[in-house]
Specification:
InterPro entries: DUF7580, Peptidase_S8/S53_dom, Peptidase_S8/S53_dom_sf, Peptidase_S8/S53_subtilisin, Peptidase_S8_subtilisin-rel. With 880 residues, the protein is α/β, with parallel strands linked by helices. Helix content is 41%, strand content 12%. The longest helix has 30 residues, at 491-520.
Length: 880
């Protein structure tokens, strides 16, 4: 239980035991067993709905409660002194998993033994009832002295399991396979997706299923053709670990008493959805609702009547709605509540990896059922959020700390800004200055929202204290100080604090809005709120001005447009991302769950700046395993130049399953010329201490450095040749020869090409003794840079070296993921030698117009059968 909140665990486990007891009571016709199950359900419900003040008392009693329930499940045997083996197995595993089924049988046996003796059963039931009664008495005392304790902390209608399952299915299984100009392209989440946001009690299906209503664009966003239609999609997923019916029933089917008949009917009408079918389903479902469900980790589909009937035109952002239309007070309150409730509902889920702002909240025109050809209607109570499954924006994280930033909870801050905009009826002005620090930009945006919230003149027509209170709590960082996110806390403490922040969000923001709507009765029959039709008085002439005590900014500057070469390089890296996504499926498909040892890549350069936004991602930080500074002995990661930051982030992108180790050998590239001894020491350290599989060196010397040659030879000797070295060739064209160590016989020299494989003129000429040379993308490549909120584009053989090293790292991981029964298994160790990796690079590279100049690209390995891919690589190794 090191990383799980005990209260969450207790709720899940006790609810499972209650379900088992109730079913056992029905099957064995034993009322005592059914009563015990009912009392346990009451306990689970209390745990589920406990407020902050109740939680504090509950935490003191939760351990004893769990031991008591464990004893009932284990009856009449003694229970272990530490832990709750049966509850842990039933609460943390899914139905069908061996540990779950084994624990379920043991619990059934224990409960059967307990309730077979009426006296023992009555004692157990009485014990559970006393727990409930003690809680009721303490709750009544609290309510008599403090009205705030009546604020119930509702449990989100969609469980963590439901959210994780739904998001993962859409991210991993529904890859785009559309055709574009006769060329098949595979990109992650190519279709636009809009998730419908709904208030409580509108989104939970029967049979303990959670329902997600979405719209998918018919064409992927990279397809320049016009949008054909929005596809109405429903996704049903299990809402907890409770075993469901053998077949899932869809919401619009008959809900009669004959469950068996309904299940059989459903089974006949639904079909399993295999990976890669989703694009075809979007076309087949035109005119129908595409109904998806997940059962036992499998995805099924069928077609049903339309429910979301919308115009097939792009969505309209909340910012545009506020700029164009007049919203009544009721419209504003209902909309604000739905958005605030949804932020709380999805707060710690992957759905929040997309920014929730007035630009990403969208509205769709409801198709005109009269068929008169008029424009569809817009309803403020039906907002959607535009979902981008592959966003890695630090401003989407639950907490985001950077020097100088005032408000470190981006999701809450963004909600507060939206509430201000909805209340005012217009979007707030934005100041964008190129090169401005991110902290300054975020702080200015926050200050602007605070100033507008305090300006009474703007709130004369919408003066609701509860609404303004919700805004203030969102924008005031101190609101969440009682549950801070501190790095020194343990994982369980971090999770407990996150849950507390979420509870505070409900109490301070969502509940006041809910209370306001209930008091005005505006939440009743909110679906009858009419469509938007009155234009804002200021729609054509008003441009919002900043309050007096806020900075008055100039018109936002346009960001520099990317060149065609920069766009192509970005797309090239997307292909690498798709390549890695496909490789990641190999081990699970073979029944292997994770490698025993991840590939290790050491990067020797100017270090890296972990304050660059790219490195804020927990997934990225978790993979940065080692740091050593030969430049000035800094304990913390550092990069005074930026060269190393760019390269480290590139390798992290190109080898997403590798562990990264960084050696800082100079503060600036110019100092590398006098750092040969440090380079030699770093090579030895990376080989012996870090046990790196691959060492990347994006630098070079005009003359051979004996100490570096000795370090390379020693590393190869100690590692029996099973270590790879990569180095940048040169950036001086034909004016100079290939640099050292790139020209060392044991090092793989890398040159730079553009995104089409054309070798750059700054590459050195090929030496006559070299059979072939390799080049890969090294022109206008985007990646992280210090003091830069976005990415910088850089060119050179050093950039190409990082990409080649990343690709090699991914290939090593891929090769290691194959089980012994696969062909060519005995030859896979050769991949870690220069001879083996050279053979692999030859196999996957493309020929160019220059003889013996090979273009390293992964495009030929994408979208092909796994057996063909493995034969292409393994066959080359076995031939050595």
């Amino acid at each position: 239980m090191a990383s799980e909140d005990p209260i969450d665990f207790a709720y899940t486990a006790i609810a499972q035991v209650a379900n088992i007891a109730s079913l056992l009571g029905v099957e064995s016709k034993r009322p005592l067993c059914g009563r015990l199950g009912a009392e346990l359900f009451l306990v689970a419900n209390y745990i589920d709905t406990a407020g902050l003040d109740q939680e504090r008392r509950l935490r003191l009693r939760i351990s004893k409660l769990l031991r008591d329930v464990e004893a009932m499940c284990n009856w009449p045997k003694d229970i272990p002194r530490n832990g709750y083996p049966l509850l842990e197995a039933i609460g943390r595993s899914l139905p069908g998993v061996t540990s779950y089924e084994k624990a379920r049988k043991s619990i059934r046996r224990g409960l059967d033994q307990l309730t077979s003796c009426p006296r023992d059963a009555e004692v157990a039931i009485s014990h559970v009832q006393k727990f409930i009664e003690r809680n009721r008495k303490s709750t009544r005392r609290d309510e008599s002295g403090d009205l705030s304790s009546r604020k119930r902390f509702a449990r989100p209608e969609r469980s963590d399991l439901a959210n994780e399952l739904a998001h993962r299915v859409l991210r991993e299984q529904m890859c785009c396979t559309c055709q574009s100009n006769g060329v098949r392209r595979q990109m992650e989440r190519g279709h636009l997706v809009c998730l419908l946001l709904q208030p409580p009690s509108q989104s939970v299906a029967s049979n303990n299923l959670a329902q997600f209503d979405m719209l998918f664009s018919s064409k992927p966003f990279w397809d320049q053709s016009q949008l054909t239609h929005w596809q109405d999609v429903e996704l049903l997923v299990p809402n907890d670990h409770t075993p469901s019916k053998k077949c899932v029933r869809f919401l619009d089917e008959d809900v009669g008493n004959d469950d068996q008949h309904a299940s059989k009917t459903t089974a006949k009408r639904r079909h399993r959805t295999d990976k890669g079918q989703f694009c075809r389903l979007l076309d087949l479902a035109t005119g129908w609702r595409l109904c998806l469900s997940i059962e036992d980790q499998e995805l099924y589909h069928r077609f049903g009547p339309h429910k979301q009937v919308v115009d097939h035109t792009p969505g309209i952002s909340l910012a545009k709605i506020l700029s164009t239309y007049y919203l009544t007070a009721r419209m504003k309150l209902v909309l604000a509540y739905i958005i605030a409730y949804s932020v709380w509902q999805y707060y710690d889920t992957d759905w929040m990896r997309t920014r929730w702002t007035s630009e990403t909240i969208q509205f769709m025109r409801e198709s005109n059922s009269s068929g008169d050809g008029g424009r569809g209607k817009l309803f403020t109570w039906k907002p959607y959020v535009s979902v981008h499954f592959n966003d890695e924006d630090p401003l989407c994280y639950e907490q985001y700390r950077i020097a100088g930033m005032v408000h470190v909870y981006p999701r809450i801050r963004a909600l507060g800004i939206m509430l201000v905009e909805i209340g005012l009826g217009f979007p707030l002005p934005k100041r964008e200055e190129q090169g401005r620090p991110l902290a300054a930009e975020v702080n200015t945006e926050l200050l602007t929202a605070i100033n507008y919230a305090r300006d009474e003149e703007h709130w004369k027509n919408f003066d609701y204290p509860d609404y303004k209170s919700s805004i203030c709590h969102c924008l005031e960082p101190g609101t969440f100080d009682q549950a801070p996110c501190v790095e020194s806390l343990s994982a369980s403490e971090q999770k407990q604090n996150l849950k507390q922040r979420r509870n505070i969000l409900y109490e301070k923001v969502v509940f006041p809005l809910e209370n306001l709507l209930q008091g005005t009765k505006w939440i009743d029959n909110y679906e009858k709120i009419g469509p938007l039709h009155v234009l804002s008085q200021d729609a054509a002439i008003q441009e919002a001005t900043v309050p007096v005590n806020s900075d008055k900014g100039k018109a936002p500057e346009r960001r520099r447009k990317r060149t065609e070469s920069e766009k192509n390089a970005s797309n090239w890296l997307l292909d690498v991302k798709e390549f890695n996504r496909e490789l990641a499926q190999v081990a699970p498909a073979a029944g292997l769950h994770g490698l025993s040892r991840r590939v290790r890549i050491a990067i020797l350069d100017t270090g890296y700046d972990d304050n660059a936004p790219f490195f804020f991602s927990p997934d990225v930080m978790e993979r940065l395993k080692g740091w050593k500074d030969w430049a000035d002995g800094s304990i913390q990661p550092e990069d005074c130049h930026g060269h190393g930051t760019h390269l480290v982030s590139l390798v992290l992108k190109c080898a997403p399953d590798a562990d990264i180790y960084v050696a800082r050998i100079a503060k600036r590239p110019q100092q590398l010329l006098s750092a040969s001894e440090k380079v030699a020491e770093a090579i030895s350290w990376a080989s012996e201490q870090w046990e790196a599989d691959l060492i990347s060196m994006s630098f070079g010397f005009a003359e051979e450095q004996p100490c570096i040659s000795d370090a390379i030879r020693e590393a190869l000797y100690k590692r029996k040749d099973s270590i790879l070295f990569f180095a940048a060739a040169s950036n001086y064209g034909a004016n100079d020869r290939e640099m050292f160590p790139a020209r060392h016989e044991s090092v793989m020299s890398i040159r730079a090409t553009n995104s089409n494989g054309l070798f750059a003129d700054f590459n050195p000429p090929k030496h006559e003794d070299e059979p072939v040379v390799f080049g890969t993308l090294g022109i206008d490549v985007p990646s992280a840079w210090p003091n830069c909120d976005g990415e910088e584009y850089r060119s050179g053989t050093s950039i190409a070296t990082a990409i080649a090293a990343g690709i090699a790292g991914s290939l090593l991981g891929y090769i290691s993921s194959h089980p012994p029964e696969k062909p060519f298994y005995d030859a896979k160790s050769l991949a870690r030698t220069r001879r083996g990796m050279t053979a692999i690079f030859r196999a996957i590279s493309s020929k160019t117009l220059q003889p013996d100049y090979l273009y390293l690209t992964v495009r030929g390995l994408i979208g092909i059968p796994e057996d063909v891919r493995w034969a292409k690589i393994g066959g080359k190794l076995s031939g050595l």
